[in-house]
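batch job 7 of whatever, protein = 4Fe-4S binding protein
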Amino acid sequence: MPWVNKKKCVSCKKCIKKCPVDAIYMAKGKAVIEEGKCINCGKCIKICPVKAILKDRDLVKFKISENLKSAKSSLESSKNQRAKKRLIKSQLRQLKREQEIIRGTIKELKRIKL
């Protein structure tokens, strides 16, 4: 499903007008795509003048980049090497927990019989 990079969105509303199923609305001056309504036609991606609407696969790269920026910013504010190591270990633990949650959810979803 397409997603909106809110930092890039300029509130032009072209995506709202182009969406054939009214899956996009504005919230706090930024476009929001409703997952339940979106049919993945990609028209919003093509019409966006600032390339603020991206494909799913672009989300992975974006999130990795954002995570690394956040980590580097945190490391810059740390005073010594020991504090930096603790910070990295803490972030790794958090990401591993998130990974376990995702793997567990995927496993359980596969067990659901339709």
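notes: The domain at 3-56 is CATH 3.30.70.20 (Alpha-Beta Plaits).
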